[in-house]
Design goal:
This protein is of the alpha/beta class. Helices cover about 40% and strands about 15% of the residues. The protein is built from 9 helices and 10 strands. The strands form 2 sheets. The protein has a 7-stranded parallel β-sheet. The chain has a 3-stranded antiparallel β-sheet with strand order 8-9-10. It is globular. The two termini are about 15 Å apart.
């Protein structure tokens, strides 16, 4: 059994950067993933080197927020607004999450490649891949990532969220198929993936479904609340560490 706690969105803002550094210092997280196209990416790189966790920084591919690194995708209203910034609309429609024309698919490929290249230029070596708003689980994005995997040799790739019970049958089937396919990109994946809230719900209602043999990834989003308390969205990270994760390990020891 192993559990990896990953902090998403490194480089998104100054506040998020500070929160992730604190989360590392307090032992709340094992690794983080960087948004290389965001304004505070350079600061994030310096903080990782200064704080000694540069070897724990993967890549958070991003097609939904900030400014793209490539010009082609900026002019496509499927992805960007009139100012050339991502607006995330493609990710909100089932049609475009499953299909894109050749031009759009090529622009996705070019942008992902540019982000991979920037990650490499920063000198990071973890080569774990996940994405903002889970866009790498959209079929056209997955196809681009699969093609790029032949060149970049990813060490691990995040699977689609499956640490929960519910959802419609078609979505669950798609997730299962995707998770089988993504293991063709990279053998190093976890068995389960979800949020702290997902884990807590499973522990409360379906703990018998968890196995000590399964590898688990939990995503967190460190930030500060109005009182300056380190939180994962709204839940204090101290509470997460004390409650859900403690309960998880305790359950597996039974």
């Amino acid at each position: 059994m192993s559990m990896i706690i990953n902090a998403d969105d490194f480089g998104k803002s100054k506040e998020v950067n500070s929160a992730i550094v604190e989360a590392f210092d307090k032992g709340f997280i094992h690794r983080t993933t960087l948004m290389v196209n965001m304004p505070y990416a350079d600061e994030a790189v310096k903080l990782a080197e200064k704080s000694g966790f540069a070897d724990k920084v993967g890549l958070h591919l991003n097609l939904t927020e900030g400014e793209p690194l490539t010009d082609g995708i900026k002019s496509n209203p499927l992805f960007c607004d009139e100012n050339g910034h991502f607006h995330a609309l493609f990710h909100m429609t089932v049609k475009h999450r499953l299909y894109m024309n050749r031009k759009a698919a090529g622009q996705v490929y070019d942008e992902l490649k540019a982000q991979l290249e920037k990650y490499r230029e920063y000198g990071f070596c973890l080569w774990h891949i996940d994405s903002h708003h889970h866009v790498h689980t959209d079929y056209p994005v997955y196809k681009a990532l699969k093609k790029l995997s032949r060149e970049y040799r990813f060490s691990s790739v995040r699977i689609s969220r499956n640490l929960y019970f519910g959802g419609n049958l078609l979505m669950r089937l798609y997730k299962w198929c995707y998770n089988c396919a993504v293991r063709g990109i990279c053998e190093e994946t976890t068995d389960l993936f979800g949020s702290y809230q997902d884990l807590k719900a499973v522990l409360e209602e379906h703990s018998a479904c968890l196995s000590i043999k399964e590898r688990l990834e939990i995503m967190v989003h460190p930030m500060y609340d109005a009182n300056g308390v380190l939180v994962d969205v709204e839940v204090p990270m101290e509470e997460e560490k004390r409650d859900a994760f403690f309960d998880y390990y305790s359950m597996l020891k039974q």
